What we know:
The chain has helices at 77-86, 103-110, 132-149, 166-177, 197-204, 228-240, 257-269; strands at 5-8, 20-27, 36-43, 55-59, 93-97, 159-164, 184-188, 213-221, 244-254. It is of the alpha/beta class and 273 residues long.
Amino acid sequence: MLFKKLEKYEQKPNTISKGTLYIGSVVVENLNEDKERNIRIYLPSNYDGKKKFPVIYMMDGKNLFDKYTSFAGEWGVDEILEERINKGEKSFIVVGIDSSKTDIGRVEEMLPSDENLSYVDDLKGKVTSHIKPLEEFIVTNLKPEIDNLFNTLSDYENTIIAGSSMGGIFAYYMGVKYANIFKLAICFSPAFCLYEENAFKQELNKLNKLNNKFYLLVGDVEYENQFVSLTKFTYEFMKDKAMNVYYKHDLEGIHHESFWNKYFNDALDYLDK
């Protein structure tokens, strides 16, 4: 049993919609801090134990469903899923993975590499990439356990990885490295700008063609436009290589959950396009 404890989320007050949210405690071995984490599992209101559902694995689980647990704002993922049900559209099980309690810990566990970092946020020389324990936990431990406990469509065609900012760059990394597991990587405001531009482009040029899908979102009003350049370059590079990539550039987009909420439904629809 992966979960030390798994129970219905009943914190009061909360902003959970019609579905059922479970919260489970796990230990992620080899993380450099905060090894014990909460996993938040949202079952949509039409989950009846019979029908099987596609699954979205999302980073920063505290920010997804309940404004009372969020450290930056709520995505409103549960409300989006329930609206999809009301419209007769495909719904999903969502597995939210809590991030480290510290800013540096969160960066390090989702940072693909600590080489060629820029001076954005003065991170250069101060952080070490520690991504492997988290990525291996998701693929090797968490996904099989979720498929065992819940009625999931566990195949590649129905599995998504998603996140924003550091979670966005992590989702991109996972979509590239585990292209046979995740059909779609939803990468909202991916923090590509943490890397020196020329080094990032040289690394991207090593990328072979991928057959899975990527949804890239970026806004102009994100830290003085710092997020746009390399996100757009990534899109154009992948498009030139005939990869399945969608790019949305919002001139009024800010670095916040309210912005990501606005496009989450559209990103989910891209799974079947």
